Amino acid sequence: MPKDSGIGTSPKRREDVRFLTGNGKYTDDINLTGQSHAVFARSDVAHGKINNIDISVAENMPGVLAIFTGEDFADVGGNPAGWLINSRDGEPMKEPKRPVLAHGKVRHVGDAYAAVVAETASQAQDAVDAIIADITEFPAVVDMETALAGGGFVHDEIGTNQCFDWGWIEDNRAATDAAIKSAPHVTTLSLVNNRVVPNAIETRASIADYDRGTGDYILYTTSQNPHLTRLLISAFVLGIPENKLRVVSPDVGGGFGSKIYHYGEEALVLAAAKKLCRPVKWTASRSESFLTDAHGRDHVTKIELACEKDGTFIAFRTDTMANVGAYLSNFSTVTPTFLHGTLMAGNYTVPNVYVNVKAVFTNTAPVDAYRGAGRPEATYSLERVIDKCARELSLDPIELRRKNFIKPDQFPYASAAGLEYDTGNYDALFDKLEEIVDFGGFNARRAASEKNGKLRGLGINSYIEACGIAPSNLVGILGARVGLYDAATVRVNATGNISVMVGAHSHGQGHATAFPQVVSDMLGVDENSIEIVHGDTSKIPFGMGSYGSRSLAVCGSAVVRATEKIINKARKIAAHMLEASEGDIDFKDGKFSVTGTDKSLAFGEVAFKAYVPHDYPHDELEPGLEETAFYDPANFTYPSGAYACEVEVDPDTGQVTVESFTAVDDFGNVINPMIVTGQVHGGIGQGIGQALLENCTYDESGQLLSASYMDYAMPRASDLPFYNVDHSCAMPCTHNPLGVKGCGEAGAIGSPPTIVNAVVDALHSGGHTHVTHIDMPVSPVRVWSAINN
Amino acid sequence: MQNISIKINGKSVSGSVEGRTLLVEFLRNDLNLTGTHVGCDTSQCGACTIHVNGVAVKSCTMFAAEADGFSVDTIEGQENADGSLNKIQQAFQDHHGLQCGFCTPGMVMSAADLLKNNSTPTEAEIRTHLDGNICRCTGYHNIVKAIMAASGQDVSAIAAE
Hints:
heterodimer; A: alpha+beta; Aldehyde Oxidoreductase, domain 3; Aldehyde Oxidoreductase, domain 4; seven-stranded mixed sheet; five-stranded mixed sheet; 19 helices; globular; B: alpha+beta; Ubiquitin-like (UB roll); 2 domains; 5 helices; 16% strand
């Protein structure tokens, strides 16, 4: 009989009701008594020396309470990069200080150099407008090649715009070079992975409060990881002891990476709250979000694929310049390196892989992890060059991939890029794709499109990603400054309902619904009696938050471990109550029973005894039923997928429309199919957005040209199709207790190359065989220009 | 400052506003009706969509003073009289038409406006109607499906769980 609750079912999301009725509680919805408002003065030039900031008029304006400049934070710490990367020659990366407010120089448009706190936001804005900043503008460093060639430096003190020159795996370099030199066929492709802006629809916001009596701070903020934010503020920036700082991340309106990081605005409102002994609130405008949220991608890459004439892969070699912007955001150094380079073997048995990444400072906003973080860049480079190779060798793109896939009996598989894939079956994914997609009918559909004057293309793609981030021992070796475990506390209350405090943070992923499904299955209790608590460092154990498709694989595993501890303790209590030995107690379907007897206790009865221990062996058992577990994964998890899409191209206008999109993913076991499907939909939507529409563009003086929704093409409903999503080919992860792999980023990783492969295919069908590549976004002007040389 | 009176979700309210106060600011800051959200500053995202005199309006495009004497409906007034979700809200929950929930109030208000004027919209009509409402989470699939379902159309053929 199919299950009607627990793992594998799709209960409606319990959090939906409050969101649908206007009762969500996002940071900007919070208003504290006596609250004041901060507004930031931001640079309108990309690069310049701050000579003087005249606040004499502003500070006397109505309602103004305080004005801060970079000078006020000269002695506090910088906001650090979370990973220390070494260059190929062993030199540590360059890590210039990232101050709370710009001090000495402004380094990108939007760089905040002052902040006004006033009674109202309007008064603060009026005062900001009255600040007179004397800034000598310098030429901006925007283009990465120019930046590496020297000239002006974003950070004068380090004397270079190169943050690091990283090789992966350096010992493989010579062999890869030799393999490419002697290969029968080499396909080369130069491409740009376009810069995008994450654009969570809720902008960043923070409110700080300070209690003069206790010295305690509270920070309400839009964070994907409140403990990590607290750690960064406490250990690196302001030095507030962790036990005096409570970070609360309430409902958060989307993150996609951009809300992982600590930003200077959080430190500013904390410092201002202490100075004024009043709550201080700041909410970003959308323009501020465009200017200052960490952007994503922005790689310029040359990739070479060497193979035999029959298509057997011999080597992949990648040279990438990765833009890190003006300052190193917290994950900015790991994203283009380990989250990118280690995936450059893809799903393939290629023996030689070498990746070189030069990270480049420019006078632009910081660039950091955005949905997929490094893996979309790896997949895009690899799957585009494979598609080009198939075309050069006149091989079927699916057959070329299948020919080189790691086969199911080869797992665990040590990839040439340094990861050990635990499990996968890439042929099965393509079998399923071929079953779902009517490839046989494609020619007829193409002919029908052509009758309407359109060119139809079919795009194929394969991906693998590494998520469930990440084993602490491994990331420690790779340069991480933190561990990447997670934590959960399961508290069974006296009357049997359950609170589960988790380090993961839900900002759309449905943890409040999915995590109880796991606990409910394990304890045999109604999932509606289980409540998830997240997003408040004063309530939850020290977990590292949600990103890298890690919530279920890592924090969910901690939930399992803590629940196992609950069962173990409850078994002891039940043994006492049933006057049996612990070894004779069975636990099934929410009941403890003595083997071979009809004596049993419901879970709730045992829970009650734990809290009312009138008759209790106190020398053997502590009262209470609450357990915490920390879980550190043994490996990454490795979701993979086979994607296909069909596009129509209007050769007269260059307009591309997506006619169909199919995603077949292996996520291992699935807890809530409805939520998983929704995650894939969202990822695909963002991936198609990057492929067809979105482009974050700076002009040569460092002005952001795409700084509003009028200039930055966000995907609308009319730009996107219905998606066909399947995750029935499940190869459970072998090393976490739920067998889950992670689904949050898959769609954004798998879809961009699928789209571009389809567009190139469409153009070839129309005889435009000179077009081997079009950079994203594949906009009408780019397609039209490609067609017309 | 200007005194204004507005009927909001059937109840009369009054307040005193600056000339520059936007209607959405009045709703959120003065009336604590925080279900109406702000997602941009150029009237593109639609998170602040409400109904003014029965017509969908982005509440960042009106000054509060302009709404003096008008009737305004927000997400907080959309439930059925017994407190249950209305058919659009229920369809959004049934079909997983929301994730982070931030754009959702605007989506629901915009969908209500569509269905009021077009009782059984096609997929294309729904997608076109939503051009003024941006969602970053769902890829729109389940939003479009939910609105079709709310209009009584059979959505079982649309791929999903």
